[in-house]
Amino acid sequence: MADVLLETGLVLAVLALAGTVARRLGQSVIPFYVVSGMLMSPFVLGRVGVPAVAGYAIELQPYITLLAELGIVFLLFFLGLEFSLERLLESSEKIGKAGTLDLLVNLPAGVVVGLALGWSPLEAFVLGGIVYISSSAVITKSLIDLGWIANDESNPILGTLVYEDLFIAFYLAVLSAVLLGGGELAEIAVDVGTAMVFLLALVSSVHFGSRYFQRFLDVDSEEMFVLRAVAITVLVAGIALAIGVSEAVAAFFVGMAFSGTDHLHDLERRLIPLRDVFAAVFFFWIGIRTDPAVFPAVAGIVAVLVLVTAPTKLFTGFVGGRIYGLEDRRNVRVGLGMVTRGEFSLIIAAIAADAVVGGTVLTETIPAVAVGYVLVMSILGTMLMQYSSVFERFVVDEKPVSG
Amino acid sequence: MTVYESDLPGVGKKFEIDLDDESTLVVVIHNTGKREVFKRDGDEDSVKLFEITDQLARQVGTILEGAYFQPIATDTTETMLDDDSLLEWVKVPDGSETVGRTLRELDFRHATGASVVAIQRDDDTESNPGPDTVLEADDTLIVLGTRPACHRAESLVSGDGETDGDGDGTHADGNGGSDGNDGNDGNDGNADDKDGA
Asked: Quick one: which of B165, B171, B162 has its CA closest to B194?
């Protein structure tokens, strides 16, 4: 027990340090959390020649996996909680167009690269998901930091993110049924069917049961409030996983159910600290599962993906901005803003790593590619946003001179 | 006035208020309670004006709303009646040379050009005081006249020949008496520059 506590403390201390460095550099914390995990892994620290130091390498133990799993659950819970049906409905036409364009260009871009590498359609489909989903967390943070949140470009960016979030919920549901269920086609069909029935039940309880969700959290005690919210989230996610349905998606719908209640703001205020701690461990966990030694082998794939999918996002973001009727200078920002990939790409990669079907492409190559890809894209995306003025100059001449 | 409200998933809410001069005030309310206030001119980027906490925002909000408004009481209160004449409240300090003397003895109207229209003493107000009214310490005289006349009245009552240092921003006429004080003159010069700019 003493060992586990000490090790947990070490993990958290390293994360705190990594986060501090990231903030100093004005960068997103995600790549720094992942790299800190990599550095502390048996692959790096464990190979240091000095045994006294190497002894502190963090092995992949069940307790870390548990904390990381809670990180996934809370990330998706918050995605559901903050899923804005209101925003989706108030501008459904624009979001529909911009989001569908985003989906129809970026997901196939990954699939095409996967197929070109000689991968199976399933593997290519996983890669498509990884490159499709932009990082809500990092992009929203940058929008606030740069003050874009008050400008018109925030509308297409946030709108497209809402579309992606909804899509990714169903994507994860299908993907985990296929990858984790395994077996013959008939068996896969049953798994996907089970997932759909379970999720349908969840969605209808979200739709019809908001009164009960409301009453469930109507307690005076802050302690009971937090405990009940965490209990129902983790329990539903656990039941989902036990019957072979994505726990992440289950958590998404539980979050969505609570978003319709008056407790939305209390939940955000009280559970965000929990989410942040567990999510940090999730990124660390991704890091310690990744052997940097495999990077040279996948560097070519990562480079191709970056060269293909950064421009595709730029393009779909730019056109998405035009759908919103913005001037081109802002459309460039929308494109730059959507480039960042992050937490959800890693969640897809984590599911692939645990796949029971397929071969080493799914369980080894894709997770390594995803980590390398996210490290590049999260830093690249944040920097593109910070230095957007360089890119805006390309289109600024087309704009009539004002002020 | 049009106010646009929109949801910011994971952040909070955004309110955009069209101002009269083609610009827009943007208020972002974070889920944490923090408020960020931006101003946007036409198609330009929004410029962040300030950010404040939830509690402070509520206080500032009620002030803007007018709930807290009270005229600020200063030593010298004045009310402009028209471009030239004003009413000014002048306190008679302890130890003023005017204490114990009547308005006639002081030849108040001729000496200053201002008339005493009322005297506030304790909780009473004596309106239209006669020439034989005796001034007492802590009286407040309400004088009517042009700005220079009111200043002369202040000088007479305070007895120091100048009115600098009362902080009411009307130094222009009283400056003659404060030549000996270089620092003060420097300050006054700056203030005048600002007014002129």
From this structure: B171
